[in-house]
Amino acid sequence: MAEMWITMGPQHPMTHGLWTLRVKVDGETVTDTEAELGYIHRGVEKICEARDFTQITPYCDRLCYVSAMTWAHSYIMAAEDLLEAEVPERAEYIRLMAAEVQRLASHLMWLGAFGPDIGNLTLMTWCLRDREMFLDLLQELGGSRMHYNYPRVGGVKRDIPIGWADRMKAKVKLFENRINEYEMLLDESTIWLVRLQGVGYATAEDQLNAGVTGPNIRAAGVNTDARWTNPYSVYDQVDWEPAVEKPTSVKGADCYDRYRVRMEEMRQSCRMLLDAIEKIPGGANTHYQPGDEMILTKAPTRAPEGATGFSTYECTRGVSNFYIQGGGDGRGKNPYRLSIRSPMFITIPYVAKTMIGYKIADIPAIMGSFDPCIGETDR
Amino acid sequence: MTEMGTTVTKEQNAEAAKAAADNLNARFSDAGVSTDVVAHKGGMKYDFVRITCSPDQWIGVAKHLKHELGVNHCAMVTGTHYPSGDDGRGWEVAYHMHRWPITNVKAHTMIVHEGEKLKGDDIPMEFEIFIPLPAGDSPSVPSIQDLWEGADWNEKETWDLVGIDFEGHVNMHRVLNPHDSPVGFHPLQRQHKIRYHDYNEMYDDPQGFGRKPVDEGRVK
Amino acid sequence: MNDWLGLHDFIYYRTREAANFLLEDTFLEASANDIAFFVFTLVTCLITFGGIMGSMFMILWIERKFYARVNDRRGATTALRSLWVGENGVTAGEWWNMVPFGLGKPIGAINGWLNKVAGNSGHTHEMVNRVGNRSWYGVTIFPGFFQNLADGMKFLIKEHMVPNRADKVIFELAPFLVISSTIMILGMVPLSSGIYGANPELSVLFAFAIFGIAPLGVFFAGWSSNNKYTLLGGIRSAAQLTAYEIPLLLSILGVCIMAGSFNFLEIIHFQHSSGTWLFFLMPLGAVLFLVSMIAEVERIPFDMPEAEAELVEGWWTEYGGMRFGLLFAAEYMRVYAASILFAHFFMGGWHAPFAGTIGSIPYLGAAWLAIPGVIWTLLKAWFIFTVVFVWARTALPRIRTDQILEFGWRMLLPLAVLQVAIAIVYRLYFFDAGAISDTIAGGWAWDLTIQGFTIPWGLPIVTTLFWAGLFWVLMKDENIEENEERMYHIRTMTPAGTHTAGKE
Predict the structure, then answer these.
(1) Peptide bond between residue A10 and the one before it cis (omega within 30 degrees of 0)
(2) Is A254 on the interface with B (CB under 8 A)?
């Protein structure tokens, strides 16, 4: 039978963003794929050469808009490496909590898009409903629901508001019960299992060689997580474990494993949040004014030529790196070169290869289970 | 993490960085490849290994990293353009790589590493490799596409944005810029200035402090 | 047992009288009866179609509201919860206090207990309020009911586009095939013994013959749009609908064998007069019918042909305006027809449940029996729609096409054949023709006699218990240790909610 190329995208309900996946199909079976990215390439790396270090933070929020806090944190870590800035411990705790709340919101967004891809439209409403709770928390920190511009070189912009801790604890406790509800809806549904199990195998070594990191690798049975292998912030003082899932086959992790890993990660994030709020120095219900030493130290604003900084950070979708060279315009006020590694940029072509041999109907299952976000892919 | 599985400690990290650097120096220092242990200056101030080599030695170093030192993740390939290359350096390619203890597991099993118990080559490590290139119009570096698949699209992006050629790279094509971009157009080279149009132009200097009399009547 | 509301005969005789009266002494006198017949057919068809289409708004409304409740758009986690939890403490008011003689007190107690056990308190209150736990606003009759009418009218004003290189004739023809075949069925399907469009002797056969034309229309639509997506959707649809026609028809064959007739009215009459709904005599057939029908009308979990995530509406993609509206309406009409058919085949049609038992209670019985049969039909159809079609749609994801086909051919087809065999055996050996009855109370034709001991309604009871038990046994999880490779499998690694990394 003749094979034909089908173009999925750039406008397509499945693609979770703006990119094209061209698949060559023989009947219903995929025989070849080609991924085309770059539709929302905004030239962030070039723009950042004309901005100073505080001005770059909002750009980093807009890289992966679903997971803005983690990207801003990743950038700020690299900038602090470059500028040799110290960060007070309270600010580290606040950043950790913000990142973990963001991780919850991001995973909920993932699940809320993944469910309808498989066909379960109820999940979208449920997940977005619960994500609202966390967006409210982040709004209290950063001022808006999506792009927060929250961390600063040397700390955070403003302290957690009074009462944030209580609200956060109540919401996290409510949410922990809700995760059980989601699992009841999904894990006890034969159809869900039948769609996700046995589909989209990927082994850990293969993935790492191809540059795929994060929950996708942990679904393949190894608990590698940049939060403990390349430790940063105060993750070593907070009570948590990396979520890892046993793959069911020697061929690697299937879509079901990746889904389970993210559910477990949500539980771990909840655990981290409840623990961090107890341990935060200065107390959970004190509020320091913006600029106070407890949350922000005065950091140098210029980086000499020849200085470099880079960060390895566990974003929600994988490991992200920023590499910044100092010595740009304004006698070092701007970076000379800012380079961003996006986990999804590498993952999407890899996933396009993984899909070969499966059916068209498996494409949203496989692609969704790797959790793409095009904002960070195209920068 | 207080209960189970702990983080990698500074001592482990320092020891692993030193071991890797010694290994590389023993092998490559007479070929002119310099390896240092450098500490991060922000955050937890961990050590990492920084290598500076020339394009000719790059493949040898890369293979040594992969096979002897167990570097399994090619994270980032960055190209930079230095038009005013004072020290003879007109371009530079920076590779950032990681080593993580990852092995395929049998079905229904998993590996739970505990950071403090890792030894030797299992200890995670970051590697930074600088390859300075002389000034000129055709900077070129051998491709490591066949060693790490993760380098594939990273190299495509570097060529697309910065213009550095990767010898031996199969199927090089534009990834972020449109496919029909002009040949030789690589936006991150310094001669391409960021242009602003209309309102954007006002962002840089909204109150017009930088305007000169000759700018009278122009937006920018 | 005929329903007291016999509109069919009533209209027949009145039109004859009227025609004969009006056309007396005119040149049309000889053909007065024929004209009467024409008018009569027109009127009954209008009543039947009008009744079904009008009550279809109820279907659309139920779907929207029930779906929303499960999705938690109006109401809390377990959708019923919003009935006792208000918004910011505002509830429907403590109406139970106004019931005389303190009879409302138990209701108040129940409400209080529910609020204590599953209400909102403290921070939960403001949180769930924030995410949409709103109570019932105001008092309007059926809020949102006419939304669907407005939606339908919207389709009328939208543009009708034909793709440039589409096969124009077929492209225009396809929606008509689908919608007209759907509507034609409604002519055969009676709403009660006295309300139907036509009642040929083989009405079931005819209805399902027409039902089977729709796959052809779907395939035409998919092919003619000149679009790879619609082609895929059309082919998937053709394969799926063909695959599920067979278990569907076989399960209906089982019904007809049991009832001894291919006529709707007689099947329903049989259920009443033999003493039991066919659901209890052939639960396997009922389930097969429902599953096959869900696949035939292409609803989730079988809506792969129009799977939004991959095919963006599948074979419907290129249709705009009222053609899309008609296809959309056709889908809901097929669902409605499926529900009504289930009510007729397996739930006793227009007969009131427990007519004999309840009917003999002094005043309540008369009231019970005075409810016209058409109401019973509609209630049963709406019930099945809600419980099966809408609930399955909210809770289940889609099944992949090849899995759907495998399921249809390899699992449903043998079961359907099994059901036919069982139906034959039951009818031949266990049916007591002498106990068929024409009274309100019905008969006891399915008594089971074992060793001289007769169990009234034995066969339905035994059958239901057997299949329910088998279902329960099959639902228990299989042994996890077997089977290293998880192919299409139906078990979880851990029970929901107890998975901890690093701990197993």
Answers:
(1) yes
(2) no
